Amino acid sequence: MPRMAEPIIMNHRVDLYIPSHCICTGILPENLRSNVIEAVKEHFDNWFGGHSEIPISGDWRLPDGTISREEVTDIFSFCSGEALGEHQEDVDRLAVDVANRLTQDRVLRAFDNLNVALWPNTCAELKPKKNCACTGGIATSDLGIAAKPIALKKADTLSKMLIIQGLLRDFRTVEHARRLFCDVLNHDYAASALPTVNWPDVARSLLIGQPTLLAEKDGFKIVYLRTSLDELRKAAERRVIQRIFKDDPTFRGLFVVSDQAQKAWELINVKTHGGDARRLILRRMRVGLDAVRTVTERLATLEISEAEEAFVKADELQSRHDTAFDAEAAES
Ligand SMILES: [Zn+2]
Question: What is the pTM assigned to this prediction?
């Protein structure tokens, strides 16, 4: 009897982002760029059996209020865990190769919209405006210099926006929340639970487990609530959040909320009125959807810069969050 073939589960994703601007900020020659894009697609087809492509248009509103005009092409494939394991180093080498051919200070690749790396060029003696890609001069590249990914903290703003967008469109685990708040927005890692022993059973029954602290900065808390319902319900969320404010009227923070199955996710900002837990205004941003551009722009404004890391205060973070949720979020 013929054996049934095991289905291959393509539950992983690989993204490589191809810039359109040179290291010197000039626009890359269209020919050169399309050759590089073709080469990337061919590799992805060979390694992962196919590819897709999305142009990500410029016009990002950056946190400092300026607009980034650079268009970026996102080439991605879905693949099995096995294919990802087999080819992740190839993807990293390809990112360095793209950085060399397009003379980039960094090229972003992401696995599962979660594990990201920024690869620099290894061009020897690259001189912007003299021998960079847009001047037509061919920079001497890849002289066996081992590339090391650039630390996320040193990433440029556009790369950070792309990383945030990737995390948001595929938001499905607390790991995505930790990456967002700890690695990109620079809160401190935390892992503990808020006590619920004194809660009434009804309130406790609205959650699976206890509220979990995911990240923190000067007492400003990012708290995960996994509700016990099969969809996100405002009344249940309000009840749990009110109880947390009753336990701690000075609470400062943001809630990351999911349904029981961890399929639907949202972020909830809480505005208080004179410490009265019954008069909380809850404002929500849905995440885990494709249309995350404005949410990305709002969240990027929450980054704690290296300069302020040591002294930023919870109240300042709360007011920054209140502002970020002013424009886009739905109130209830
Ligand atoms: Zn150039």
Answer: 0.90
